[in-house]
Amino acid sequence: MQMPQPDADVIARRAEIIKAMQGIISGEGVIADTDELRAYDHDGLMAYKGLPLVVVLPETTEQVSDILKYCHDNNVKIVPRGAGTGLSGGALPLADAITLGLGKFKKILEIDFDNRTVITQPGVTNLALTQAVEHEGFYYAPDPSSQIACSIGGNVAENAGGVHCLKYGLTTNNVLGIEMVLMSGEVVRFGGKHLDSGGYDLLGVANGSEGLLGVITEVTVRILRKPETARALLVGFPSNESAGDCVAAIISAGIIPGGMEMMDKPAIHATEDFVHAGYPLDVQALLIVELDGPEAEVEHLIERVDGIANQTGATYLKISQSDAEREVFWSGRKNAFPAVGRISPDYLCMDGTIPRHRLADVLKRVEELSQKYNLRVANVFHAGDGNLHPLILFDANQPGELENAENFGADILRYCVEVGGVLTGEHGVGIEKRDLMGEMFTEDDMNHQQRLKCAFDPAGLLNPGKVYPTLHRCAELGRMYVHHGKLPFPDIPRF
Amino acid sequence: MTTKAAHINDDLIEALRGIVGDRLSLAEAVREQHGRDESYHDAFPPDVVVYPETTDEVSDIVKLCAARDVPVIPYGTGTSLEGHVAALKGGVCIDLMRLDRIISVNPEDMDVTVEAGVTRKKLNEDLRDTGLFFPIDPGADASIGGMTATRASGTNAVRYGTMRENVLAMTVVMADGRIIRTSRRARKSSAGYDLTRLFVGSEGTLGVITEITLRLYGIPEAVSSAVCSFPDLEAAIETVISTIHAGVPVARIELLDDVQMDAINKYSKMDFPVLPTLFFEFHGSKNGVVEQVETVEALATDVGASDFQWAVKQEDRNRLWQARHDSLYACMALKPGSKGMATDVCVPISRLAECILETRKDIEETGLLAPIVGHVGDGNFHVILLIDTEDKDDLEICKAFNERLVMRALAMDGTCTGEHGIGYGKMDFLVAEHGEAVSVMRAVKMALDPQNIMNPGKIVRV
After folding, report:
1. What are the start-end ranges of the E strands in B240-288?
2. What angle do CA B208, B211, B212 make, to 5 degrees?
């Protein structure tokens, strides 16, 4: 993985930069000691590590603004960081950049049940949001598996998903507004409590921008009333194809389950060994289908899904009779990653998303590739929205295996794009999929995305080396537009 | 910076003919029609109207205009409401209605890719055999391209969202003529900046949208509608709030005040009580719909509603919703010869009652004849101001009223536009609403359209 060459000039100014940071944040909010910096040397993509120039932990928007302004004026790079659970390396530190952690922004600022909104600081964890409102029967819908630890600010930056996204949308569909500090130190607000607003949808642009456009310092989310009833079906199939057919048949029957997850045989065995959820071991694929809503509706839908499962060749079917049983069904799926971690020293988690009906086809391809690369793979995925998480098992201590696994993963993602899908459904690009962006976007596509970056951060100081395979100079881009020897906007300062 | 006057000359016209042949018009009537939308705003005709048939032709046209600094104004069905299509600085109007192919329907994936000129009714007719439909319904039979560009919404946004939630990807001709694709058919993506959301609602100011991939939905097993009148506006709004809070997944929930009901009775020959009224629509399974209706009926009766009427039969439902969709025409019939100016504020739902009641008071104090209708499930409502366009004073009074309304909504944490967009009619309100964020919007506009040729003079001033 090639990262931009660290700027020796900035590293030489380290002492001066630390002093300036201490001037903005008093006390323990500036971390410069090498041992303490190690706690920040990687995020959820553990294959890559590096020490930051310095870590700062501001507590107020004003401090964030002052830090960014200082960095802007002194040409210092910034890597924003939430809880450090990101799976694509978005928070990987850079030797010549300040890592700006939002961990001290952990207050929930306002709970407004009338409007079903919560205003929160970005360091609050995803689960804490739900916990803060559940006494009134509400919850926050997106639920990444890391919800116990991941922060809401990071969720926005990565456009995080989870098992409930099929029905309730991704982070981007559940965030109503943000406060963001721009690289210039300016503080702006996009969106608000109301449902829609005029002008460019900059809130939409900020979602999933992976820390390249600004630092999020406040988030307004929508909360939902907990469904009256939720029940789940556990359905086993003799093949991946028949499970895929069942998923397609449920969706085309107009049923949108609250969650619809699929696991293949290796994943079923790994999780069953770990959590003993009572999964059948003699099936090739397992579906968990959860239906939620008013009781009469759920009863009716359970019957219909039951019928569809039988028609598509299910060989095992169990319907939850209590909330406790439903949670047992889910316990396996929710622990699939740690379960796989027990059977292999290392694994890589892929995140390709495909048009649903190509599911069986893509799984077949994954199996072929598994043979080609001679690496085992366990598949768990959000089947309802076609979001695959193949887990490639390998041993990093064997020379060449990491590279081999990465090549395997890249081949899977290339195939996802080839069938009309995308590189990442919910984990973000970061460094992990950076070099594959060219598979999904043409050069023109990416150039225009980069222009957006120029509007926010023309000097490229925010999270450089992430998401886009090439660094890009805003001034060069502008030069093409000098017509008849005139600058297009003579009154605007040039960058 | 101000936009230059268009460099239109015979040379350009010849070059355009080289691209589109005789699919080009300089006729005054055609140009006049293309410079006007359905609003009260003044028309600004473009210098020339072209009718491309492919994305590549659109790209060639934009390249030509970029090389000559000539404004480009995309045009769909002309049903926008804030002067979005006005050629303020002249230029080339690209009428996209001949890009009217449905490119691919994918029933298993529940998505469809269409060209920009396909209208929503044509799309739904085409989809009929698949058991799927595209729900966004702004009333007018607008083009999908135009609906995307203006982030259209409508009566069932409370259930299905707006264009923002329902566009998966699009093909766009950028200001330099290059063609980009913003995403793919996958249902979710976190790859790269979300240009899809940036272009939804960009009102033709960042590029020309030529193809759109949309989400589709299964036609619900059961649909049912209901009408219910209330003793006063408070009771109606309280029912809206309690319905949303109870988590009832209503497909539509529309408020019409007594003035509007009177207009509808007269125009559509109905005999509804002249009282504040809610129209509901429910989608779901047969049992589910019954349960939804019963819940809402109980909530409405709690606050003193009378004669809750439930319509299951298709023709009854159609009559009901046709009356709702004709409400603008019904209003205009109250004052023959007038044009409707529809305000469009949206507030958090807890402030809705307060906002509507204060507005109602303002209407009375100003002495206006102005019905109120609203997609109240989203906190969005419209006051239909009936303007005598010949009477300058009348227009000024209505503009001042709208300004007070917008400021009232902003003070309540709301927005100046829930669904109609900014166009050139609301640019000043945008600054009042977004403050510093408008400078970021301006920077985005300049980054993607450095020459300011794409629909100049709309959304933000550069």
Report:
1. 252-256, 277-284
2. 110
Interface probe with A: pick from B190, B240, B248, B434, most Cβ of A within 10 Å: B190
Amino acid present at A38: R
- Pair B307, B397 in one domain: yes
- The answer to whether A420 contacts B195, with C-beta atoms less than 8 Å apart, is no
> Which CATH number goes with the domain that contains B232?
3.40.462.10
Element containing residue B28 per DSSP (H, E): helix B28-34
User: Which residue, B97, B120, B143, sits at the end of a domain?
Assistant: B97
Mean pLDDT by 10 residues, chain A (495 residues): 90 97 94 95 91 97 98 97 94 97 97 94 97 96 92 96 89 96 96 80 95 97 92 96 90 88 95 94 96 88 96 96 94 89 91 88 92 95 90 93 94 93 91 91 89 93 92 57 40 34
Structure-token pair, residue B38: 């359905």
At the second CATH level, the architecture of A108-225 is 2-Layer Sandwich (3.30)
Specify the number of domains making up chain B: 3
Compute the distance between CA of residue B250 and CA of residue B254 in angstroms, rounded to an integer. Answer: 11
Neighbour count for residue A479 (Cβ, 10 Å): 9
Do the strands A54-56 and A97-101 form a parallel or antiparallel pair, or are they unpaired? parallel
What is the assigned CATH class of domain A344-427? Answer: alpha beta
Q: Which residues in chain A are closer than 8 Å to B107, comparing Cβ atoms? A: 252
- Find, in chain B, the residue whose alpha carbon is nearest to that of A186: B436
Round to whole Å and give the CA distance between A131 and A136.
10
| Position B461 in a domain | no
**Residue B188, domain extent:** 102-218
